[in-house]
Design brief:
The complex is a heterodimer of chains A (194) and B (262). By secondary structure, chain A is mostly beta strands. Chain A has two helices and eleven strands. Chain A has a domain of 132 residues. The N and C termini of chain A lie far apart (75 Å). The chains are: A mainly beta (194), B mainly beta (262).
Amino acid sequence: MRKGSGIVMVLSLLLTIACSTATCPMDTVVTCNYDFFDADGNTSVLYDTLTVTIAKPTTFYIYTKEGKKDSISRTRITALVDSGYTETVKKLKVDTTLVNNLANGGSMKVPMSYYASVDTLVLHYKKILLPDTMYVFHEGYTHVETPECGSYRFHNLKEIKTTDRCIDRVEIINPKVNYEKEFNVKIYFNTLPE
Amino acid sequence: MTWAQEKADTSQLSPDSVNSKLSTLNSQLSSDSVKTQLSPDSVQSKYTKWVPLLEGEKKDLPLFQGFTLSFDVIGLGMIAFTDYGTIEGALRLSLKNTWLPIVELGYGICDRKDYNTKIQYKVNAPFIRLGCDWNFLRNKFQDNRMFVGLRWGFSTYKYDMTGPPVTDPIYGESQAFDFSGSTSTSNWMEIVFGCQVKIYRNFHMGWSLRLKYHIASSKNDYSKAYYIPGYGVTTSGNTWAGTYNLIFDLNWGKKKKVTVEP
């Protein structure tokens, strides 16, 4: 019996050692979390359908040749260069949707650019014709919890500027953007049509 | 004149002189010097340090029982066969062979690159642990020890962490990162259980098992130390470790019992 309990103790010890491995966080999506309020500061929902887009800089390859139709591509086509086309590389901004048709939402989560210092968010409403544009100034940095878990891009919010078609004002309440899911920004809407 | 010659001469002496001789002889035999020479207590190996307790002998050891110097071989083995390990030694004082204050000094080394994430972590730095063990064996007059103890560990170090380019899934840019020369200071506690046995003369061997609790580390926004010299890997708030020690007794200034060759 004593010998048996000794073996159990040793096995438990080995098991404890074997289980001492890295526990990486499960939900590691880094988003800037916006909470919606009315102009008076009460928690509210936006009685509208909201779509958020960004103007994503995208590389385009433009091929021109006299007497031939111009060709534009997102990938490089070496065959056209070989056949005498002139290649021009241009960075153009293409609309990319980050939040799609959020109906009667009280908050939203928006991913941030890893390396840019400012994100330009365009907020489109259904009931209001013109969109709002929000400029989010931030500083991104790489965060490593353990080498096993990989690296994440966290951000420090610096400043937010916005147009005032539907938005009354914005307020940064927590500048640290990480995967903790805390609210970072309060958006006060000045019109909340039902 | 030998005792046998004196005995032979007694036949030629008067009874009074014989009695006088015998009483002189008895008094010589009972004298301290002869006792010391013939006492079994004195006929011991000159290498035995912890003298067995005899009937009626004083039960307390002198306070100062010398120093021991030890070196860990598990840490060296880990350096040879894994990504990290330590080179460490310890100086331990023995007080009545019961309380054993100890200072452990070492150098922690880690060079690990994760297979999946390709993130590399490097550190080379010294550490110190201070603490005390309690030898709980009942017989303190023997060379073997079994002990429990506590340690407080401390290390201040610089580490390098580098990683491959990470691509932004939306905007598409990518950049590598390099946190070279990040500094940190850590301290931790250890609960120690161990034993040591005499192998030959002043040479002992022993092991210790340690449960380490991380207390605090200075950290920055970018990263935290993956491996703390002297503590180990920081994947959780506590960790297990062990040492296997080669131990040498140093008898600097220790009170030794005078041994007389028979």
